[in-house]
Amino acid sequence: MGMATAKHVMKRILMMLAGYFVSVLVGLIAIAVIYGVLSSLPNAPSYFDAMGVSPIAVLLVPPLGMFVYFLTIVVTALQTLIFALIAEFFSLRNVLLHMVFGAGAAVGGFALIWPSAPEDMDPERWVDIGIIAAAGLVAGLLYWLIAGRDAGFRRPLFERH
User: Fold this and answer.
1) What is the rounded distance in angstroms from the CA atom of residue 102 to the CA atom of residue 98?
2) End-to-end CA distance of the chain
3) 108-137 pLDDT, tens per residue?
4) Quick check: 106 and 132 in contact, CB under 8 A?
5) CA 92 to CA 28: how far, in whole Å?
6) Rounded Cα gap, residues 18 and 37, in angstroms
């Protein structure tokens, strides 16, 4: 492997990490925004208010925010790494593919935190999984903007300068 190729691969790995860490943060913000907006709808479940206000608590208590961020990274890292490597090896740059994967990674992370959710949840609570998936779509879009649209460990023949 030549020096230029090694440099390109290192750059891609750094972009993958940056994209992942920023997209996790934006995904968590998206969850709070979605709950906040939905709580203003008529007949919204009362716990939506708490979910919409929780980001304020996270901002006021930074260790809580860091815990939530770290926990989200722990439960989404493996599936995200697998997809990111597939995207890099096969130069998959499709925005919808990255968004769908973001949704899958978010729901997969939720399943790791609460494995018995399908049995424990009331049918009305399934909307929570939809909200988490929607936030994952947002996170996947952001990842694509940072790292996914240029995915590919192999250097293109004509580099953009």
Assistant:
1) 6
2) 22
3) 998 888 877 667 777 766 888 899 999 999
4) yes
5) 25
6) 28
